[in-house]
């Protein structure tokens, strides 16, 4: 099997849907993982009291997708970290379709930058 480097996408969403709905967010992140071709191992989501937001993670064989929401300012921070054959940009597109943000910032970081030892 060919090694593919780990890609970490950081999505900042403004004006997204479902920022206080843990079930909808669990479904969205799980569907995003499936769209990327990732293997879902489990998920855990927590709703804060008084609709103060959600924190959640979908654990993947290829790493994870996590979300933290601040509904009082209409903001969600999402991390999509995948390695192997999984395609994180497909996960990002699936999340755009489900959460329909008014605006988005996407940052990509390659997490495979391993230094070679000096001789």
From TrEMBL:
Pfam families on file: AdoMet_dc
MF term (GO), any: adenosylmethionine decarboxylase activity
Cell inner membrane listed as a keyword: no
Cofactor needs: pyruvate
Keywords: Autocatalytic cleavage, Decarboxylase, Lyase, Polyamine biosynthesis, Pyruvate, S-adenosyl-L-methionine, Schiff base, Spermidine biosynthesis, Zymogen
EC number: 4.1.1.50
UniProt cross-references to InterPro entries, sorted A to Z: AdoMetDC_C (IPR042286), AdoMetDC_fam_prok (IPR003826), AdoMetDC_N (IPR042284), S-AdoMet_deCO2ase_core (IPR016067), S-AdoMet_deCOase_pro-enz (IPR017716)
Keyword S-adenosyl-L-methionine found: yes
One BP term from GO: spermidine biosynthetic process
Domain of life, source organism: Bacteria
CC terms in the record's Gene Ontology section: cytosol
Name by which UniProt lists this protein: Adenosylmethionine decarboxylase
Species for this entry: Pseudooceanicola pacificus
């Amino acid at each position: 099997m060919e090694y593919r480097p780990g890609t970490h996408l950081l999505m900042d969403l403004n004006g997204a849907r479902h920022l206080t709905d843990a079930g909808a967010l669990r479904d969205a992140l799980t569907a995003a993982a499936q769209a990327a071709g990732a293997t879902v191992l489990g998920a855990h989501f927590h709703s804060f009291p008084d609709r103060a937001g959600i924190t959640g993670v979908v654990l993947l064989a290829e790493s994870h997708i996590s979300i933290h929401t601040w509904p009082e300012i209409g903001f969600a921070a999402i991390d999509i970290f995948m390695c192997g054959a999984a395609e994180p940009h497909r996960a990002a597109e699936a999340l755009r379709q489900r959460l329909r943000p008014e605006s988005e910032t996407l940052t990509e970081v390659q997490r495979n930058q391993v230094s070679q030892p000096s001789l």
